[in-house]
Design goal:
Strand content: under 5%
Largest sheet: 3 strands, antiparallel
Helix content: over 70%
Radius of gyration: 24 Å
Strand order of the largest sheet: 1-2-3
Number of helices: 18
Order of helices and strands: HHEEEHHHHHHHHHHHHHHHH
Distance between the termini: 50 Å
Shape: elongated
Structural class: mainly alpha
Number of strands: 3
Length: 438
């Protein structure tokens, strides 16, 4: 009897140890996916899939900063729970793609835990794109973003310089571990100071566009998109947390802009609007500039290189469609509706491309949406908020009304284009979440 009890205890100990080792690995895997910008539903599906490859059942709770995973054996007789804090990592779509592919390899080939650890560490340690290449492409992307808001060549040159300096400072401060909120305030201040030179010295004709787009490279587009997607997908807690963090970053951008406006005494109340009579040619031109902007903003999130060409194509198509719908004489749709339709087109095209190149659709669909981010509405909302504080009481109600109008449009356009994009991904759910399968 004693020998049987001893044997049973030894067997239980081995099962418990296997559960523990697997739970630790899966928690590390899931928290890394969360850190690099994967949406919550992908994290859950990938983690559960890997647990099934070991014959375990999984309960996974994902919170904004931590996650809890409980593994149960096949008979539900034994379990192990592990809690893991989400590490601090930059957005990385390449890691997202490769870790998603790893879950399928584990499921299809029943890889041992030691091999999974080895492959996981190799994926996480892969080098990102050259920071100098990212710096150059991000600067070029924001200059093209300036053009999308009707900035002229002078404004594009100023915005390129403002982004080059601001993004370089961001890279250096981030590398030194400076708090990310302080980084955003500093970079927004430096970039808008350079953008304000159009008001002070150049007088190129679209001074407001130079100032308003000089810091738009900082807008946290991917967290905003992921936040909306999580809420629509039923993961409200994670979605609200991501949106809250994005809103804090936008407030930091506003503080940097406010410091520039107050220090230099600039009146940013004007807004340039350029009318282009040939709508089709203008839509094509906007699409081409959006393609460059989409690739430049995508590189910041380190996607796989094979996704960049798709990103350029989708950004071109999406932005061209939106421009045509908003400016064609027979249509003249509002920006919210046009953005929703354009987002739907991007999402619909992203699914077959994802299946063809075996890459998650969000790796190029989300960056393709970034040129459509309503940056100028956000800028005007911030500008109105500054004027509420600075201007006499007689103007307060006017700018309060403008602030809520521009802020509401910013939210509605963001929500519309993201919902439009993710509808096809949800419709073709099985295909979208199995594209990384070998």
């Amino acid at each position: 009897m004693n020998n049987n009890q001893s044997t049973q205890q030894e067997a239980d100990g081995k099962v418990h140890e296997r559960l523990k080792d697997t739970a630790i690995f899966l928690a590390e895997y899931a928290s890394t996916l969360m850190a690099v910008g994967a949406q919550t539903s992908r994290i859950q599906l990938n983690t559960v899939r890997m647990a099934r490859s070991f014959g375990y059942h999984t309960n996974l709770l994902i919170f904004p900063k931590t996650l809890s995973i409980t593994l149960l054996d096949a008979e539900h007789n034994r379990s192990y729970t592990y809690i893991k804090k989400t590490p601090g990592m930059a957005l990385n779509f390449k890691v997202n793609m490769k870790l998603s592919a790893l879950s399928w390899r584990a499921f299809d080939h029943k890889l041992p835990l030691g091999e999974l650890w080895r492959m996981f560490k190799m994926i996480v340690k892969e080098k990102r794109e050259s920071p100098w290449l990212v710096l150059l492409l991000a600067s070029l992307a924001n200059a093209c973003f300036c053009r999308l808001f009707d900035g002229n060549l002078t404004s594009m040159a100023i915005v390129f310089a403002a982004t080059l300096v601001g993004f370089f400072i961001r890279q250096q401060l981030t590398r030194r571990g400076v708090n990310h909120l302080a980084v955003f305030v500093t970079c927004a201040f430096v970039s808008t100071m350079i953008g304000a030179t159009d008001y002070l010295y150049f007088h190129g004709g679209t001074e407001d566009i130079s100032l308003g787009t000089s810091m738009l490279y900082l807008v946290p587009g991917v967290p905003l998109i992921n936040g909306v997607m999580d809420i629509v997908d039923g993961h409200a807690l994670d979605g609200i947390a991501r949106l809250t963090n994005a809103c804090l970053l936008i407030i930091c951008i506003a503080l940097g802009l406010s410091a520039t406006v107050i220090m230099l005494g600039i009146d940013p109340t004007t807004f340039t609007k350029v009318v282009r009579p040939d709508v089709v040619r203008a839509a094509i031109a906007d699409g081409l500039f959006a393609a460059v902007a989409g690739v430049g903003f995508a590189v910041i999130s380190n996607p796989p290189r094979k996704a960049l060409a798709v990103c350029a194509l989708l950004a071109c198509v999406g932005h061209g469609i939106r421009y045509f719908l908003m400016h064609s004489g027979g249509l003249m749709l509002d920006q919210v509706t046009a953005s929703t339709i354009a987002g739907f087109a991007i999402g619909l095209l992203s699914v077959p491309f994802a299946m063809r190149i075996h890459c998650p659709a969000e790796c190029f669909a989300f960056p393709s949406l970034l040129p459509m981010v309503p940056g100028m509405f956000a800028y005007k909302a911030i500008r109105d908020l500054i004027n509420i504080v600075r201007l006499p009481d007689a103007y307060t109600m006017e700018y309060v009304s403008r602030f809520f109008s521009n802020a509401s449009l910013t939210v509605l356009v963001m929500f519309g284009m993201v919902v439009g994009c993710i509808i096809p991904i949800f419709i073709f759910h099985r295909q979208s979440f199995s594209v990384t399968r070998g």
